Amino acid sequence: MYARSSSDIAWQPVRCNARQNFVCKKAEGSCQPGWVAHQNRCYQFNTRYLLSWQQSMQFCRGQGARMVESYGNTATNFLKSYADELRSAGVGTYWIGATDNNTNTYKWSIGAAIKYQHWVHNPPTNTLNRQDCVYVSTNDRNGLWRPTPNCGTKRAFICTIGFNRPVKTITTPRPTLKCDARWTLNSGNCYQFNDARRNWDSARQSCKNQGGDLATINTNRLHSFVINRIRTQEYWIGLNDKARNRKFIWAATGLQTRFRKWCPREPNERGGQENCIEYKNRCWNDQGCSTGRKFVCQKPPKSIPLGPPITTTPMPFSLHCGVGWEEDPSSKYCYQFRDDQMSWNDARLACKRMGGDLASIHDRETQVYINTRSATMNSVALWLGGTDRSKEGGWTWSDRTPFNYVNWAPRQPDDARHNEDCMGYYVQRGHTWNDFPCNYRNGFICKKY
Fold first, then answer.
1. Where do the C-type lectin domain residues begin and end (predicted)?
2. What pTM value is reported for the model?
């Protein structure tokens, strides 16, 4: 239904696919997307970018907001109520807007005196000839304020702004990827080459103890990276057929390999006991899993906010699903729309680490919501959770929900080159589904109940 722009504004029924101008409605006294309402203020929980206290203050001010303050128990209890959500998102501490500015008196970042006291030690300490800044630990159920002279430490932070105040577009640091000491970054993951000789299971456990797994080598680029490091030496990787003979899967994902770099006449399963895969003479060889070998570990990198600023928008926060998630108002599900370019496997792992899975779509309403929300993304294409890797043409959703709705593009899926087993769609081509090779690097959509 639409209304004509005339003096006698009357409703007219038209087809729903007709193109018309439109009017939006927003509740009075509400907050922008990505902000959480409490009493007469809005709060933004910033967990993706870890900044110093000074950077956090500038970040908030750049939006026309300010760092969070607390003038009484009500605000303090509100922040405490999100401790579990923040902790589950990996946030250990966050900055608040209090500092002594290298004096003996603590004030809020706007210059207001701190009258309400919620210190871990009262009176709070002041470091001689140094600025002290205040943070809160999410492990502290009381949410007590903790002063520190280390104001340059990178932490999460919270901004606040009044109801109906416009939020300005801000500049934020570009997150870059960083690996721990003795790990090397390549192709979006961190790799460690271990010289200790261990059997395959012990090597894998060593990798898992460090937050990773034995390496998945599924591209020519990664293969070249590994052989340039190890030369002709023998190193375990994550490939094995321990569960089922001749079905080689990667330990980290449980997925069967399509990428192969076997040595001549391998795998030969000599003696019927060679179920684990090593690099030997720059190619793959099956070997007995109890053999002692050096090994290659792999784990995700850390996202560190370094480099030039870029324009961005506020991080979503869902009361139902937590930090980084936004709710579809017409359903019980939450979504994350990510421009990080990953393979289908890596995108699914990223979703699962956040408590979700790649998105499944079961009705037209959800498809329209996803179309609308993803229209402004930077990615050329986005991964969904559909795959037919178990059986060609037998499409299923990775979250194991029924495959009861389809939105394929014309002449899709076509399994071009016989290796297109993962579902996605082009953002600017009608939002209909295509099958892609699973090693393509696309943005992706996560879904969570």
1. 38-160, 186-298, 330-447
2. 0.41
